[in-house]
């Protein structure tokens, strides 16, 4: 069996795990660090330290390769992790770029503070094709989603702020540059006053990773136990899984 390690700062990567497990049979070992979420407002040193903790934990499961299902980790320390652990790390951010290349027009990259301040999406896409990439720091979205706020006035107010440039300029493409955001993809679409392509890199990733081991083993580890976490995982996952709360790293 192929052992695939997947990790994120919290629940967001569960959407990535779900897409992968639906389409590709393998042993999946997912760790979400919801005890220390969000990562997007932290320093690079903290993010790197936390990501190292996560991989050290997952290394106990004989992982063949890793998927970094966190844009913040992807754009801050992927090279460090590759050098330290001498393994293949596929990043959701790189997959997002590949997915975005299939669409014409300008883009809004919607992500965390750390991801947007790296300017990864802007510099990479604008170097690859004639386009303009606008950046929106959606500072509160991860906390809202992790807290189970998936609809309503509070979420709508935040989305209206973060999507204002898209509505103003009628940007053709919205890149979900944080793996938490597909959980509220429908709400994002509703707050746009026009029709846009909403690019979910998890779908692109699942379509471009091929395994066929015959059966799935889906193991989810979270660092903090909460009813909201259990309920959201149950809502997102469309395949059988085992959930374990490990109480920190």
From TrEMBL:
Gene3D superfamilies: 3.40.50.1860
Gene Ontology annotations of biological process type: cell wall organization; peptidoglycan biosynthetic process; regulation of cell shape
Catalysis: reaction(s): L-glutamate = D-glutamate
Keywords annotated in UniProt: Cell shape, Cell wall biogenesis/degradation, Isomerase, Peptidoglycan synthesis
A Gene Ontology molecular function term of the record: glutamate racemase activity
Top-rank taxon: Bacteria
Cited SUPFAM superfamilies: Aspartate/glutamate racemase
EC number from the UniProt entry: 5.1.1.3
Class of the enzyme per the UniProt entry, highest EC level: isomerase
Protein name, per record: Glutamate racemase
Organism: Anaerococcus lactolyticus ATCC 51172
Species lineage: Bacteria, Bacillati, Bacillota, Tissierellia, Tissierellales
Gene, per the UniProt record: murI
């Amino acid at each position: 069996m192929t052992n695939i390690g997947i990790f994120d700062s919290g629940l967001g990567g569960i959407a990535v795990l779900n897409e992968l497990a639906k389409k590709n049979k393998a042993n999946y070992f997912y760790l979400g660090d919801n005890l220390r979420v969000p990562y997007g407002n932290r320093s690079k040193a903290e993010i790197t330290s936390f990501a190292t903790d996560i991989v050290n934990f997952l290394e106990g499961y004989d992982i063949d390769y890793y998927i970094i299902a966190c844009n913040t980790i992807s754009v801050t320390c992927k090279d460090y992790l590759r050098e330290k652990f001498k393994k293949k790390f596929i990043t959701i951010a790189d997959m997002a770029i590949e997915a975005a290349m299939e669409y014409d027009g300008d883009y809004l990259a919607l992500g965390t503070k750390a991801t947007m301040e790296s300017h990864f999406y802007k510099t990479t896409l604008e170097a690859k094709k004639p386009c303009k990439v606008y950046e929106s720091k959606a500072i509160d979205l991860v906390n809202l989603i992790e807290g189970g706020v998936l609809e309503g006035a509070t979420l709508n107010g935040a989305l209206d702020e973060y999507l204002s440039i898209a509505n103003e300029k009628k940007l053709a493409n919205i890149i979900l540059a944080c793996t938490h955001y597909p959980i509220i993809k429908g709400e994002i679409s509703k707050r746009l006053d026009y029709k846009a392509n909403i690019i979910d890199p998890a779908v692109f990733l699942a379509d471009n990773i091929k395994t066929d081991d015959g059966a799935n083993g889906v193991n989810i580890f979270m660092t903090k136990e909460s009813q909201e976490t259990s309920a959201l995982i149950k809502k997102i996952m469309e395949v059988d899984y085992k959930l374990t709360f490990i109480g920190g790293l």
